[in-house]
Design a protein that fits this description.
The protein is an all-alpha fold and 369 residues long. Among the domains are: 143 residues, no CATH class; 34 residues, no CATH class; 33 residues, no CATH class; 36 residues, no CATH class. It has 19 helices and four strands. Strands 1-2 form a two-stranded antiparallel sheet. Strands 3-4 form a two-stranded antiparallel sheet. Helix 1 packs across helix 3, helix 3 crosses helix 4 and helix 4 packs parallel to helix 6. It is rod-shaped and about 125 Å long.
Length: 369
């Protein structure tokens, strides 16, 4: 297609260029008008040091003067203030008629005069004229037409300042698998933490995650232990879980390899037997007769235990003749002899006084601690 037949919008390229030339003149007129407003505002209120003094008198409040001027010419205070500042930054001989007043206003933010005057004469690389977005990019400000990913992200942030808008946008983005896949693991963790601040939501999410074998497989041993401890704080739940675990032979074997666990289980069995016995003695009509029989049986059991120990020692000790035990072996034997001696003292106390209470030291020896 010939170049003169190329259309821009609904007009030909030739007509478009005529419109651009016409509107550039209009923009130049507007820029001149804005500079006139700025110059007159400067005439009324020249720039002074903030809080300064002149000839010992307080400087009149600038805002009052500029507000009055703005009201009298039908503009806003901020427009008059911006025009005044821009005019102060661009002496008449430094103003560019081919550059809009808004670009002058943005580039006025360059503090160094030489740099500022050089900048307005040097459009960005590849451009013949300054645009408002190009001037904003020089300061890293928000642009009206974002191009780079960074500018687009900045634009989204600006649009999502409202909490409800941000929530809706985030929800929509996270529904797109390709977007969610690019979120880092750390950011995903932070998102989940924020979304699960509500205890009910956290409980529901945790329950769902723990039902996924691939998830639980990645949880460390220490964290799994902590989770089980938290979930079994309720006594009834802990009882049910423990019962189920001890029904597994491998688990029961390893648990009983722990001295403290074994002692607690033994203690629990003894306590359960004691409670059952007390209940029987309180409620059964034959408890008195059984108690007499049990006392006889306890006497026989105790005598049998002593006889068995003496007999076993009589068979074993002679075998140590001419044999030198190692230091570790001696320590073990001495430790067990101490336990036997403490047990014998306990037996004598029980026989003489009828008291079978176990003090802390004896309990430690009997448990092997």
């Amino acid at each position: 297609m010939p170049e003169n037949h190329i259309e821009v919008g609904s007009v030909s390229k030739q007509r478009y260029e005529q419109i651009v030339a016409e509107l550039r003149e209009v923009v130049e007129q507007q820029s001149r008008a804005s500079f006139v407003i700025g110059d007159r505002a400067l005439e009324i209120e020249p720039l002074r040091e903030v809080g300064g003094w002149t000839a010992g008198e307080r400087i009149p409040v600038v805002r009052d003067s500029l507000t009055r001027l703005a009201e009298d010419i039908g503009l806003s205070f901020s427009a008059v203030k911006a025009a005044r500042f821009t005019a102060s930054r661009w002496p008449k001989e430094r103003r560019r008629p081919d550059v809009s007043f808004k670009v002058h206003r943005i580039l006025a933010g360059i503090e160094d005069e030489e740099e500022r005057f050089a900048a307005i004469c040097t459009p960005p690389k590849g451009k013949t004229r300054w645009s408002v977005d190009d001037a904003s990019r020089r300061f890293g400000n928000q642009v009206e037409t974002p191009i780079s990913p960074e500018e687009k992200v900045s634009a989204i942030h600006a649009l999502a300042r409202d909490e409800q808008v941000a929530s809706a946008v985030t929800t929509e983005f996270l529904r797109r698998p390709t977007v969610a896949a690019q979120v880092s693991a750390e950011d995903k963790v932070r998102v989940v933490e924020e979304l699960t601040r509500d205890e009910g939501v956290a409980a529901a999410v945790t329950t769902g995650l723990l039902k996924r074998p691939a998830v639980t497989a990645q949880v460390s041993r220490e964290d799994k232990v902590r989770v089980v401890e938290e979930l079994t704080r309720d006594e009834s739940i802990a009882t049910e879980v423990t019962t189920g675990l001890l029904r597994r032979p491998d688990v029961a074997f390893k648990a009983m390899s722990d001295d403290r666990a074994r002692h607690e289980v033994n203690h629990a069995q003894v306590e359960r037997g004691r409670q059952a016995r007390e209940h029987f003695e309180r409620t059964s009509p034959v408890a008195l007769a059984v108690r007499k029989i049990e006392r006889t049986m306890e006497f026989m059991d105790l005598v049998t235990a002593c006889h068995s120990f003496v007999a076993s020692a009589g068979r074993t000790v002679p075998g140590l003749r001419d044999r030198q035990l190692g230091e570790d072996e001696k320590a073990i034997v001495h430790e067990n002899v101490a336990r036997v001696r403490a047990t014998l003292d306990w037996i004598e106390t029980a026989v003489d006084t009828g008291k079978v209470d176990v003090d802390g030291e004896l309990a430690r020896l009997l448990s092997g601690q």
